Amino acid sequence: MQIAKHVGATPIAITRKGGKVDELKGAGFMHVLQAGEDDIEREILRITDGQGARVVFDPVTGPDLERIIKATCKDAIVVIYGALSHEATPIPVMHVLGKHTTIRGYEFIEVTSDDAKLERAKAFINEGLSAGHFQPQVARTFAFEDVVNAYRYLESNSQFGKIVLTLD
């Protein structure tokens, strides 16, 4: 969200859990939608004044991806970087064809395995941190020896932010 705002985008969060709505708003999201409660397609189109989303980052996929894709603009880019949903992921083919939507997969290794990309990414992040544009969100810190409990906390999906392991 911080990066999206920094580059001039309007971030819209979609959560599967109602308990995360307030946390997302508290973190700075102006628009938070809840899957299963909100009409995702209609709300994204409303927020974008009918234009549709230009860029989508989806770590979940599943049935909501269809509605998200239908709420994109012409020449939109949909980046899939996870598959947290265990349900099928329908693709609205006619929308993709008619609006020239690009759907691509992404893994962080695309950046970390390329020295030039990694240096650009680190510079961007470090500049954003130095300027105060980016502020890390840490959910909880664990000592390295407590890694099992850190992993259990991660599996609970109750965290908001990153889980940090410290080496003392």
List the helices and strands and how they pair.
Layout: H1 2-6, E1 12-15, H2 21-26, E2 31-34, H3 40-47, E3 53-58, H4 64-70, E4 72-80, H5 93-99, E5 102-105, H6 109-112, H7 115-131, E6 138-143, H8 147-156, E7 162-166
How would you explain this protein's 3D organization?
The chain has 168 residues and is of the alpha/beta class. It is built from 8 helices and 7 strands, in the order αβαβαβαβαβααβαβ. The strands form 3 sheets. The chain has a 3-stranded parallel sheet. A two-stranded parallel ribbon has the order 1-2. Strand 1, helix 2 (21-26) and strand 2 form a beta-alpha-beta unit.
Keyphrases for this structure?
alpha/beta; 168 residues; two-stranded parallel ribbon; globular
In short:
This protein is of the alpha/beta class. The chain has helices at 2-6, 21-26, 40-47, 64-70, 93-99, 109-112, 115-131, 147-156, and strands at 12-15, 31-34, 53-58, 72-80, 102-105, 138-143, 162-166.
Task: Outline the low-pLDDT stretches.
Answer: none
Proportion of strand residues: 15-25%
Radius of gyration: 18 Å
SSE sequence, one letter per element: HEHEHEHEHEHHEHE
Strand order of the largest sheet: 3-4-5
Largest sheet: 3 strands, parallel
- What's the average pLDDT? 94
Please report the number of helical segments. Answer: 8
Shape: globular
Helix content: 25-40%
User: End-to-end span in angstroms?
Assistant: 31 Å
Q: How many strand segments?
A: 7
Structural class from helices and strands?
A: alpha/beta
